[in-house]
Amino acid sequence: MEEADNLGKSLTPLERKILPLLKENNNISSLKNSSRLSETEISRGLQWLENKKLITISRAEKEILDLDENGKNYLKDSLPERRFLNSLSQNSLKLDEIKDKACLNDDELRISLGLLKRKNAIEIKDKVSLTINGNKLLKEKFPEEELLKKLPLELNKLTEKDKIVFFELKKRKKIVQVNEEKEISVSLTPLGHELLKKDLKKDLLETLTKEMLMNGSWKNKEFRHYSLKSITPKIYGGRIHPLNLVISKIKKIFLNMGFKEMKSSWVDTSFWCMDSMWIPQDHPSREVQDTFFLPYKGSIPAELAKKVAAVHEHGSKTGSKGHGYKWNPEIAKQLILRTHTTATTYRYFHQKNIKYPAKYFCVGRIFRNESIDATHLPEFHQVEGFVMDEGLTLRDLMGYIKEFYSKMGINKIKFKPAFNPYTEPSFEALGYNEELGKWIELINSGMFRPESLEPYGINVPVIAWGLGVERLAMMLYKKSDIREIFGSSSDLNWLRDYDIKW
Predict the structure, then answer these.
(1) Which of 30, 298, 354, 474 is 20–30 Å from 9 (CA)?
(2) Predicted structure pTM score
(3) What confidence tens digit (pLDDT) does each residue in 70-81 have?
C-alpha cells in the first residue's frame, strides 16, 4: 500500500496519462488512438512504467504475408492468367491477339500460357482456344485470386491450401511479399492494478520556479517525487578514435627518438609521388588499377625536373645507365591521390634543402586502388621516416625499425629481402599477428639509390621506411580484420569502450 502511494507520487505526467488507459488497451496502436499521443511518447511512457514494475511488456515478431506492387495491381485489374482466359470467352485467338486484348506484357503472357496449360484450360493449334475445363474456370475463382483478396495474413496462420498457393505466387515477380512486424503487448502487474485505485489526477508540481517562490503559489502543493535509482540513458562523451591514439603514440615515439615531423597534402603530382624518386614512367604502380588519377594537371619545378629527367634517361652523374627512355614532363604533371608518403620526403629534400645529419618522419593518409579484405583498404595511413648521415648501413636501418616496434610493444619481428625501384638494398619487416596466426607485412624499407638522391645533391647514405598504421593497430588491439580499425564497418560499441592494453 505504501509502495503504491510512493510510486503514485513519482509518476510523470506522461505516465499518469497512459496508466489508466491500460485497463482497456494492451498495445501501442490502441493506446495511440485512445491517448492521442505519438508512438514515441507512448513507447517512452511504457518503458518508464515497466522500470517502476507497474506493467510488463511482451515483445514478439510476426511475419505478415501481404500484397506487393504487382499484387495490388492484379487485385484491381485481375491476374494475367484471368485476363488471358477472359479474352478467349467469345472465340479462339492468336497469341498476339490475346496479348493485345488482355493487355499483357511478354513476361505475363509466357507465365499465363504455362499456368493455363497446366490447368488444362486451353489448347493450342493454329490459335489458342478454351477447353471444357477452361470454360468451367471462366465461372470459378482461382485459388490465387482467393488468397490475394484475403491478404494481409499472418504467415504462420495460413491453411495448407493457402501455403501451396503462396509458394507458387512467390515464384512470380512482386505479387506477394513477407513483412516482419514487431508486436508489443502490455499488461498491468498487481502493483499497477493497486496503483490504479489511487487518485492519479492529483495535481503534482514538476518544478520550482522563481515566480512560484516570489508569489508563494508553491505553498500547500505537493511536488512529484524523484527516484535516484531510475534507469537513464547512457551518455557517451567524446573519445579519441583508437586509430588516432595509435598515431599519437607513433608521433611521440619518433619525436622522443630525435626526429622532426614532415607534412604534405593528399593530392600531388606524379612527379613527386613517382618521378622524383626514380620510379620509371612505365612502372606498373602508375596504372589505374593501383593509382587514383584526377582529371587535372599540376606544376613541377623546372630546374629539378631537368635533373630528374637526366637520371631517368641516362643516369646523369651516378654511373648508372638510367632507364634508357625519353622522360615525359607531361606524365609527371598528372595529379593523383598520393600512393605513399615518400612523396613528402622528396618534397622536403628539395624545398627544405635538408643537410645531414638529419632525421625526419611523417604520418599521413594514402590511397591505392586495392581490393578490400582483412588486411587491405583503398585508403589508409602510412608512416614515412628517413635518416641521413655518413656511414649508415642496413644494420642501422634494422636497429631503428626494431627500436620503434619495441616501443610499441611488438618484439616478434623478422626481415626478408624485397624490391623497390628507388631503394637498394631493400627489405620488408614482418610482425607476427597472434589473432590471424600468421606473419603480416608491417614495413617496407631500404637505402635510397644514388639515382634517387643525385638531383638533390645528396651524396651520403639515406635509410628510409614506410609502415601501415592500420596493420600495426590491428596487432595492438588484437583484431583480425583491418575494417574493424578504420572505416564505416567499425563496431560503434567497440569504438566507445575499447581497452588500451599496449
Answers:
(1) 30
(2) 0.57
(3) 989 999 999 999
Q: How confident is the model at residue 4 (pLDDT cuts 50, 70, 90)?
A: low
For residues 241 and 490, give the distance between their C-alpha atoms in angstroms, rounded to a whole number. Answer: 11
> Tell me, what amino acid is at 474?
M
Is residue 105, in this structure, part of any structural domain at all?
yes
Q: Quote the number of domains for the chain.
A: 3
pLDDT in tens, 246-279: 999 999 999 999 999 999 899 999 999 999 989 9
Closest to 6 in 3D by CA, of 256, 222, 266, 249: 222
Amino acid letter for position 446? G
Mean pLDDT of 54-58: 88
- Which grid cell sits at 230? 531510475
Listed residue (346, 362, 357, 356) closest to 456, CA to CA: 346
Whole-number Å distance between alpha carbons of 206 and 187: 27
User: Does residue 318 lie within any of the structural domains?
Assistant: no
**325 lies in a domain?**
no
Tell me what percent of the chain is helix, strand and coil, each rounded to the nearest 5. Answer: 40, 25, 35
**CA 48 to CA 18: how far, in whole Å?**
11
- Cα separation, 411 vs 48, whole angstroms: 53
